[in-house]
Amino acid sequence: MCGRHQAIPWILSCFLLASQVQPLRAEEHGEEDRLKRLEERLARLESNLERLIDVLVSKSEGESSPEARSQLRSLSQDVQTIRAEVKIEATETQEQVAVAALEPPAVDPQPDSPADEIINVPYSGYMEMHINHDQINPTTLDFHRFVLLFGHGFGERIRFWSELELEHAFVEGGKASGELELEQAYLDFLIDPKFNFRAGMVLTPIGIINERHEPPAFHGVERPFVDTVIIPSTWFGAGAGLVGDLGNGLHYKTYVMGSLDSSFFSAEEGFRDGRQKGFLENGRNLAWTSRLEYRPRSGLNLGTSFWTGETGFSFRDLNGRLKMFEFDGRYRVGRFEGRGQFVTTHLGDAAEINQAIRRQVGINPNIAREMRGFYLEGASSLVPSTFPHDLVGFYRYESFDTQYRMPQGFFPLEQFDRAAHVLGLTYFPHPDIALKVDYNVMGNASDLIKSLNRWNFGIGWWF
């Protein structure tokens, strides 16, 4: 067989390698310098490919020349390097795509065409299924979430976004079952990149997970304990406020929205059951919340947020002002990613709220005056960057205490001073699909009541 026909498989292989490198949109990352470098590499790659094809086609013998093999190796290395960089950028985008459609654009909001009225696509969604096993309770298999998101652009200056979630697969009236929730449904009025108005059902901009809770965006089958118990994720409500990009990597959100109801607070779950969720919320006691994020360069994201509001409106003559402060950080370099978060809360009139609830239900809820939690997490890819899929190992340490400081006359329940070591793996057969397994080593400060360790298995995806 002539060299021209033997060259065809080589040419096809090179073309398939090159075809896997997709240019990134500047508006998705906001890093024109990185995009420019990738485009320059792609141009060199195309030039190398053309030279290699010329060499292979010109061969009339069976084997390719040393020059062709050398160029092929160089081409393959270049493709692998670019794919690795694109993979890092795509992973960073995973955490932000769901909220990218929510953010005001970093450029002139006037679109070039009607197709540009909404960032990304006007619909999205995510789903996850879990298996949970501990030493005592029955093993459970749960289709935990099915979520659909829809958006629409009203001309050049008004954008709509929504999120409808079905939890635990089945809702039946009058019985304990799943939940159907409208977690987001708001309008953005685009005025200026630094100053835009938002109104409707909004997510509280507290911490890492509450706004970025899609399964491929975090490690571990279940969301972190700190982001479940101390910060009652998913936390949403009716509200309105401002969002914007201040430039130099600074982004902000500030809302006035419905408060929490302290009549549903508890010792174990903290403020979680106090969320009003936009259902006939008390309109005379509104909360104020804000978040500021600093993204100075690729891979680094620093954030801080606070929330304050009166929560005692279900009781006569009680203020119950709750203050929550949080800061967090995320950093990705090469194959390693780290993140951490700290949150502290203070509840005014905690003793009076405990007494009021005890008079109503006959049981002391033992709600703390202060709650506190933090976690640190490290993760690293365990396979070469040239591997078509990704396997990530991670470890997270969490400390969360819903009885950190008690009001006068009340004593802490030590079983609610808790800690967790979470060790696991996340396998990405596709950047938008995550297969997860983790083991939770649980502990608390009580000598009598022990926490249960558990295995978790899960699969989550989004589109």
Plain-language structure description:
The chain is an alpha+beta fold and 463 residues long. Helices cover 22% and strands 41% of the residues. It is built from 6 helices and 16 strands. It has helices at residues 3-19, 26-29, 32-58, 66-100, 226-230, 350-361; strands spanning 123-134, 140-154, 158-167, 179-192, 195-203, 236-247, 250-258, 286-294, 300-310, 321-333, 336-347, 370-381, 390-405, 417-430, 433-444, 454-462. The protein has a 16-stranded antiparallel β-barrel. β12 and β13 (390-405) form a beta hairpin. It is globular. It starts with a helix and ends with a strand. The model is unreliable at 1-30, 60-64 and 86-120 (pLDDT under 50).
List its salient traits.
463 residues; alpha+beta; Porin; 2 domains; 16-stranded antiparallel barrel; 41% strand; globular
Topology:
Blueprint: H1 3-19, H2 26-29, H3 32-58, H4 66-100, E1 123-134, E2 140-154, E3 158-167, E4 179-192, E5 195-203, H5 226-230, E6 236-247, E7 250-258, E8 286-294, E9 300-310, E10 321-333, E11 336-347, H6 350-361, E12 370-381, E13 390-405, E14 417-430, E15 433-444, E16 454-462
Antiparallel strand pairs: 1-2, 1-16, 2-3, 3-4, 4-5, 5-6, 6-7, 7-8, 8-9, 9-10, 10-11, 11-12, 12-13, 13-14, 14-15, 15-16
Helix pairs in contact: 1-3, 3-4
